[in-house]
């Protein structure tokens, strides 16, 4: 397997202020490379010409595309135009301009929601486009599918080493804890913490609590991304999972244990459940020598600590 070294290389982390980007910048410190970052105000990655100028000026050797418009199930279904437009533009601009500006390697970050709603579990990479998507996040999913196909197309036509990774549901320190716009794990941390503080006896879970999700701690993902950037050179997308699968109700119970909530859970069935299950098959990346390390309980504790730290600032 051809392996590249990141030492002394210029590496652009697109999306360095997001959950993944922050963790990736921290992980890259070990590689002794030069990390390039640019904030949204200085460069809107949806702007083709400005992005082109920035790349010409800064000349990164490698790019991690972790920039995206992201959100939980309600946010995704409430802003379909923003989710498809922003994510498509970022993918189109950065992938095409990486080709134009001779970037040596690109790693594009997708999501497990690219797979069909009722895909056979565990979901293998080749399940892509074998069935209909989950309607609550199809706009985001279509953009992410376009991104991974762009990587593949440029690989086929121009021999670019553009790879793409599809992680399962992510969480960790620095997540978006806002209940309306965030994902379930940080949302439940926020709700359960506030219930304890306000001496409330019940917390509401959206939907039925029955769907299952596989949760990957963000620092494990950052490690996987560096691993893939160094070692993976195929233009077929690759899954990155943790095998930490749990129902939403059991997730809520685990978070309650960590926070010390003794009340009960009720269900708001007017909210969508989304996909019943999206447990991805990570055999491919595991067989290359990478495995996730953090179990769900430890990951939740670390995430809750960061939530408390941020609150006290
Ligand atoms: O994490 P989440 O928002 O997104 O929701 P998805 C997961 C499950 O948790 C759904 C339930 O069944 C929700 O109904 N849930 C229960 C809650 N209580 C809550 C709560 O307080 N907040 C939230 N947010 N959910 C996302 C996609 O889907 O997965 C994105 O929308 C992305 O596009 C991401 O792909 C990985 O897992 O359903």
Q: Which oligomeric form is depicted?
A: single chain
What is the terminal-to-terminal distance?
46 Å
Q: What is the number of helical segments per DSSP (H or I, 4+ residues)?
A: 10
Anisotropy-based shape: globular
| Strand segment count | 11
* Radius of gyration, in angstroms, nearest whole number: 19 Å
Concise synopsis of the structure shown:
By secondary structure, this protein is α/β, with parallel strands linked by helices. It has helices at residues 19-28, 48-58, 73-78, 80-100, 138-158, 184-197, 218-231, 248-259, 283-288, 296-311, and strands at residues 10-14, 34-36, 62-65, 105-109, 161-167, 169-171, 202-206, 212-217, 238-240, 245-247, 264-268. Guanosine-5'-diphosphate-beta-L-fucopyranose (GFB) binds next to α3, α6 and β7.
């Amino acid at each position: 397997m051809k392996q590249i070294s990141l030492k002394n290389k210029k590496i652009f982390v697109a999306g360095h202020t997001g959950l993944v980007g922050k963790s990736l910048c921290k992980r890259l410190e070990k590689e002794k490379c030069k990390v390039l970052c640019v904030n949204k105000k200085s460069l809107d990655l949806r702007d083709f010409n400005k992005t082109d100028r920035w790349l010409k000026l800064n000349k990164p050797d490698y790019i991690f595309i972790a920039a995206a418009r992201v959100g939980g199930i309600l946010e995704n279904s409430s802003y379909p135009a923003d989710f498809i437009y922003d994510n498509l533009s970022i993918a189109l601009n950065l992938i095409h301009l990486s080709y134009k500006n001779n970037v040596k390697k690109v790693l594009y970050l997708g999501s497990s929601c690219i797979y069909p709603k009722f895909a056979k579990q565990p979901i293998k990479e080749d399940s892509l486009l074998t069935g209909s998507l989950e309607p609550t996040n199809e706009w985001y999913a279509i953009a992410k599918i376009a991104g991974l196909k762009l990587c593949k197309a440029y690989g086929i036509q121009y021999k670019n080493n553009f790879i793409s990774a599809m992680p399962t549901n992510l969480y960790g320190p620095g997540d978006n804890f806002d209940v309306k716009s965030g994902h379930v794990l940080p949302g439940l941390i926020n709700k359960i913490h506030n219930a304890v503080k306000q001496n409330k006896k019940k917390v509401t879970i959206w939907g039925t609590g029955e769907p299952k999700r596989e949760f990957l701690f963000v620092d494990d993902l950052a490690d996987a991304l560096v691993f893939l950037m160094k070692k993976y050179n195929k233009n077929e997308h690759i899954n990155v999972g943790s095998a930490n699968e749990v129902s939403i109700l059991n997730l809520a119970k685990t978070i309650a244990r960590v926070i010390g909530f003794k009340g009960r859970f009720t269900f708001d069935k007017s909210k969508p459940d989304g996909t019943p299950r999206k447990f991805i098959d990570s055999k491919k990346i595991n067989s290359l020598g990478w495995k996730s390390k953090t179990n769900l309980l430890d990951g939740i504790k670390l995430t809750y600590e960061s939530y408390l730290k941020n609150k006290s600032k």
